[in-house]
Specification:
This protein is mostly helical. It contains eight helices and three strands; from the N terminus they run H-E-H-H-E-E-H-H-H-H-H. A three-stranded antiparallel sheet has the order 1-3-2.
């Protein structure tokens, strides 16, 4: 899938400005589905408008430039449905934390402990987000509850593994340099 598809998916649920689409696709709930950069959202919206998949209306506020509000058209909805029928590529998983873990032998224990603590904090934060999504599931898109439960399951498993095995990762850190310890 591509940025074009994620823009259409966002607009399927509500009209939005380009800024709102950028924020949802890079920082909020739609950021989990497709990699989208700030630099790719507006060109995609422009092409979608040229192709008749979205319409744009301007809203005026006193003393501010007009806001462009995008809406999905029937053609855009048909394109979205067609795009969603293509089987997905394998999920991509990238983790800076895992790169730190991979290189644990180069790092001191304090660095690894801070990285583990940060990862635990991030996982717990994501779990809170899934709580909120599950609360909104009845009034949201039909798949929201299922997606939130799936995300919860994956994050709970990661958190459980990390809590149960943090000592193994901490044990992989480089041994302190005896010469530098003796100098202290």
């Amino acid at each position: 899938m591509n940025v074009r598809t994620v823009c259409l998916a966002i607009l399927q649920f509500s009209d939005a400005t380009g800024y709102e689409i950028k924020k949802m696709s890079t920082e909020e709930r739609f950021s989990y589905f497709v990699d989208a950069s700030f630099g790719s959202i507006y060109p995609a919206l422009s092409r979608l408008q040229d192709d008749g998949c979205v319409t744009v209306r301007e809203e005026y506020e006193s003393g501010k430039p007009p806001r462009k509000i995008y809406s999905i058209t029937d053609k855009g909805r048909a394109e979205l449905i067609e795009s969603l029928q293509v089987l997905p590529r394998p999920d991509t998983f990238k983790s800076e934390f895992l790169l730190i873990a991979l290189c644990a032998g180069l790092l001191d224990g304090e660095t690894i402990t801070r990285a583990i603590d940060k990862r635990i904090k991030d996982l717990r934060s994501d779990l809170e987000m899934f709580d909120e999504a599950e609360t909104c599931a009845e009034s949201g898109p039909p798949g929201l509850g299922w997606v939130a439960e799936y995300g919860r399951c994956v994050h709970e498993a990661s958190l459980k593994y990390l809590l149960e095995n943090r000592d193994k990762l901490e044990a992989l850190t480089r041994a302190p340099n005896p010469a530098s310890e003796a100098a202290e």
